[in-house]
Amino acid sequence: MRQVLLVDDEPWVLEGLRTMVNWEKHGFQVCGEALDGPEALVKMQELRPDLVVTDIHMPVISGLELIERSRRLLPKPPKFVILSGYDDFNYALTAMRQRVAEYLLKPIDEDEFESILDRLGQSIAKEQEMEQASSRKQSLFMNNILNRLIQGEEGERLEQEAVAALQLGGDPELLCMLIDAGAYPSDLKQKVSTFFSQNAERLFLDGLGRVGVIVRTDELSPPRLEEIGLAISSKLSDLDRPVAIAVSEVGKGIRSVRELYLQTLETVKAKREQGKTGFFLPCHHPQPPNTEDALRGKFELLLGAVLQGEPGAAEAAVEEAFGSLACSQMSVESIRVFAGNLELTLCSKIKKAGGDADGFMVHMQENEGNPGGISDYPALKRYLHKLSREAALLLAGLRQKNKNNTMFQVIKYVDEEFRSKLKLQTLAKKFHMNPTYLGQVFKKETGKTFNEYLNEKRIEEAKRLLKRTPMKISDIALQVGYPNTDYFISKFKQATGMLPSAYKSEFLNEGSKKEAGTKPAE
């Protein structure tokens, strides 16, 4: 049910609003009422309604002022229906400017009101679906970054992406916690996330189906994290399987993430082998020799077959890999790690080929589940057959699509080399095209001229550096491809309406307000 707050300074009007329509029939539930603007603001912050129905003429704070203040105070303001006893064009015009959902005259026509509720219900439902889809994609993106780190992938670009996405600039002290519930329930990550509302973006599922989280010690101290670990252990005690939770030692900066993860992995594995469950601090449990080398060899064998784009060869490689793994008596757990590695690498290859890697993984997980939830050889073998076959088909299709698509290669080159001294003429020469023709096709493909596209890429990178680094503006200009600082400043202002220095100051001020817990003045 979507929640609605009723606001009017006359109690009899509130009573009428509450009883004149069947709210539940239209998917709404009255969650509260308020007799004036200040009371409504308090209840909006407490109840977080989806819809507010408010009178426009009230003492202290008018309905229009209530809308304006709510948009300053609330991270996600509700939709509004304005009620007025006057057919006042100026009020209606102001309401439209403030993006009020509906403007309704008193006395209220019941049929019109119900029609409005139906429209708003559909609008709210559509927005919620879009937010959920966006949240799933963002979660997959964060999960991908963290898994690449814990699997040992290196590179300056990955580090920069991770620092920015996970807010780990300045080499902060870090801890890792890992929760292992065996063949984990589908909602394990959601259950754990309730304990880490401030660190939700650093929650991840590893290739084994365990839930991990990276925290900063200036946000959660080791003693506090230990308390949370014990609380999680208690909350998950109702599961029909044993749960092991481990916390790492303190590390420093993004490059420590893999080591911290391995510490917790060693701990939970050791405790599992000992038949123990609960919450544990770090321990040392050496891995069997050559395990990683054997996994890497099988990983490369199967990956090579998939990248050829031949489904038959890929499935044959799965059979060969499982035959070798069975002979070497590798554990199911080790093969689950292998499957997780394969997923991450295939996502990277699909993305580089211009495919939808997030969509591919959503499709796999919706249809086949997560390999972390598989606990036997036959099921893992079936999963890898499906993963390898579908990835091979997708990559083959992308390769064929891009084979003769010079523009795909041109755009890819610009995306990777925009920091360099790029000109349309030199680009045309590199790809053996006429400059005029290249410019026309480039605009047709991207919707922008070459210079517009190039400047947009550079300005976006400059904005990221202004937010995330202490670099000087002149250094940022050079870094993103503008040798002339004045020209960079001109282009930045043209694109954003602000000078780079003002943009950086505004971002820092917003960050300071959040840290201090301040609210915008009313």
Automatic annotation (TrEMBL):
Subcellular location: Cytoplasm
GO cellular component terms attached to this protein's record: cytoplasm
Chief location of this protein within or outside the cell: cytoplasm
Protein species of origin: Paenibacillus mellifer
Keyword Transcription regulation attached: yes
Gene3D superfamilies, sorted: 3.40.50.2300, Homeodomain-like
InterPro entries: CheY-like_superfamily, Homeodomain-like_sf, HptR, HTH_AraC, HTH_AraC-typ_CS, Sig_transdc_resp-reg_receiver, Tscrpt_reg_AraC-type_HTH
Name of the protein in its database record: Helix-turn-helix domain-containing protein
CDD domains: REC_YesN-like (cd17536)
Key words, A-Z: Cytoplasm, DNA-binding, Phosphoprotein, Transcription, Transcription regulation, Two-component regulatory system
Pfam families, sorted: HTH_18, Response_reg
Residue numbers carrying 4-aspartylphosphate: D55
UniProt entry tagged with the keyword Transcription regulation: yes
Residue intervals of the HTH araC/xylS-type domain: 408-506
Gene Ontology MF terms in the entry: DNA-binding transcription factor activity; sequence-specific DNA binding
Sequence ranges assigned to domain Response regulatory in this UniProt record: 3-121
GO biological process, one term: phosphorelay signal transduction system
